[in-house]
Amino acid sequence: MLTLDNVYQASFALKKVARMTDLIRAPKMFPDNEVYLKTENLQNTGSFKLRGAYYKISRLTDEQKAKGVIACSAGNHAQGVALAASRQGIDALICIPEGAPISKVEATRAYGARVELVKGVYDDAYRRALEIMEESGRTMIHPFNDEDVIAGQGTVGLEILEQLPDVDQVVVPVGGGGFISGVAFTMKKLRPSVKVYGVQASGAASMLVSQEHHHIETLPSVNTIADGIAVKSPGDLTFSLTEQYVDDILTVTDDEIAVAILNMMETQKLVSEGAGAVAVAAALSGRLPLEGRKTALIVSGGNIDVTILSRVIDRALIKEGRVADITVELMDKPGQLLEVSSIVAESGANVIGVFHDKNGNEANINNCTLRVRMETRNFEHIEEIRKRLADAGFQIVRRMS
């Protein structure tokens, strides 16, 4: 049985490896409300996952430690297990799908674990990890469905109560449910009045669907930029704890996650991965009651691949109306590009890309199309530019924003 003593024991054990991450006010993001960010993206290994992994491994018997541990992950759990095992002098083997980003594979190795790349996807790597567990006697360190792991994640709840004793509500990212199970259990046991909300990506809402149906559901597929919480099915332990202690579960779209990542970078100078940004996305999108409440949003991780980050930023800029494409049809004659770019410049926008298609169209072979990509202020600014182009006699044939 999970108890508060387990969480306090985990907190004591973690003093050797984890840091108490800052809880910082976010007035630029939420000027009208008292909202704080719990920065687990700045935790050692860049994620809260170290907490549960370290506590679980610390509880193993000497015989289990001698045989080593096995885990399956392509992300934060792998790195958490790797560092936790290394700090305790235990051999760790991590099965990772061969298509995982090289940066994550190398980070796992750098933290001290051995890596076995497995052909296929996560499920194939998980099956391979189970085979190794049976063959070698290694202990499986599950990413979420384990009481010791849950207790370790619950230490984040202890820290929030210490840093903000009168907190009214806490918002937690949800994948398999280990994190929110630990935080919600801890909060409700110590401060039953605190509201605990979970947030999932709309493309991977397995816990929400399971709670709605009152039994564990397995999604046929998941699709989200928040790969850290892209879990098809919650665990039985986490499902039960979430059903008992969590007040509500919300969802956010990938566009809203992208906007949250960009917003944190610009206003708080924090880098978050997709899974780490879902709590902020829920608050920014207006799905949470913020007025008159002290709110703690947990930014659970910051291990985002730089190539993905650039695409996320582009997506967020388009979503906010800060980058836009406008395509106009015009006569193929000298001076047309200059006139269009002059109108854009006079409107206060900045041209960052131009594509000129001289193939014309079926109606008028003498015409061509010009697509202009611009940096803009907002959607109202885009409409102003469209109107000025139309007033100048240009026909807008396509709009992307």
Q: What are the segments in which pLDDT stays under 50 over at least 5 consecutive residues?
A: none
- Strand residues, percent: 15-25%
N- and C-termini, Cα separation: 52 Å
- Helix/strand class: alpha/beta
The major sheet is characterized as: 6 strands, mixed
Number of strands: 14
Shape field: globular
SSE order:
HEEHHEHEHEHEHEHEHHEHHEHEHEEHE
Radius of gyration: 25 Å
| Strand numbers in spatial order across the main sheet | 1-2-10-7-8-9
Q: Percent range for helical residues?
A: 40-55%
Mean model confidence by pLDDT:
92
Count of individual helical segments: 15
How would you characterize the overall build of this protein?
The chain has 401 residues and is an alpha/beta fold. It has 15 helices and 14 strands. It has helices at 4-14, 49-58, 62-67, 76-87, 102-110, 122-136, 147-163, 178-190, 206-213, 236-245, 254-268, 278-284, 306-319, 336-346, 379-391; strands at residues 23-25, 35-39, 69-72, 92-97, 114-118, 139-140, 169-173, 195-201, 248-252, 295-299, 323-331, 350-357, 367-375, 395-400. The strands form 3 sheets. A 6-stranded mixed β-sheet has the order 1-2-10-7-8-9, with helices on both faces. Strand 3 (69-72), helix 4 and strand 4 form a beta-alpha-beta unit. Helix 2 (49-58) packs parallel to helix 4 (76-87) and helix 4 (76-87) packs parallel to helix 5 (102-110). It is globular. The chain starts with a helix and ends with a strand.
